[in-house]
Amino acid sequence: MADEASGKSAKAARKTTDKPAAGEPVLLSGGNPQIAKGYGDAPVQAYIAAMPGWKSDLGRRLDALIEREVPGVRKAVKWNTPFYGVEDDVWFAAFHCFTKYVKVTFFRGTSLQPVPPGTSRHPEVRYLDIHEGRFDEAQFVDWVKQASRLPGERM
User: What are the φ/ψ torsions at residue 29 (nearest 5 degrees)?
Assistant: First the structure.
């Protein structure tokens, strides 16, 4: 019984030390920032600022490239993920943090040339996993241009 009680106090102590400081976003499993749902640039920038380590720089670059290539791009954060589209609530791409990489989702990815490498259980979705130091910017820009011209995913 003493072991059980000490196990619980160790768990409780661990939980309190894992909490972020006041005002800092919570990082979910895999290091994905927990950001409130919202539309526009502000929630997306809050998400990017909360991305841990090298991923924040990558998030800023992804966001800047999408803005440059898709004038008037619409942005939102839904399900702790930034989304990008050419009309309200219709999205062509999104990205999400995982422990060792950032996953970019192209909702009509099977229509892109070349097709992004990551498969999905959704027939048209394809993924691009970007690991630290391994970002092919030219290929990403090409996919963004193509994806923004395709019908988006309504969500």
Answer: -55, 140
Q: d(Cα 88, Cα 39) in Å, to the nearest integer?
A: 9
Mean pLDDT of 151-155: 93
Nearest by Cα to 94 from 55, 127, 60, 130 = 127
For residues 3 and 71, the answer to whether their CB atoms sit within 8 Å is no
pTM of the predicted protein model: 0.84
Q: Tokens in use for 56? A: 């924040």
Look-up of token digits 């990205």: 95
**Rounded Cα–Cα distance for residues 134 and 149 (Å):** 26
pLDDT in tens, 102-121: 999 999 999 999 999 999 99
Judge if the upstream peptide bond of residue 82 is cis by omega within 30 degrees of 0: no
Strand partners, 33: 27
> Checking phi first, is residue 131 left (phi over 0); if not, alpha (psi -120 to 50) or beta?
beta
Q: Which residues pair with 128 in a beta bridge?
A: 104
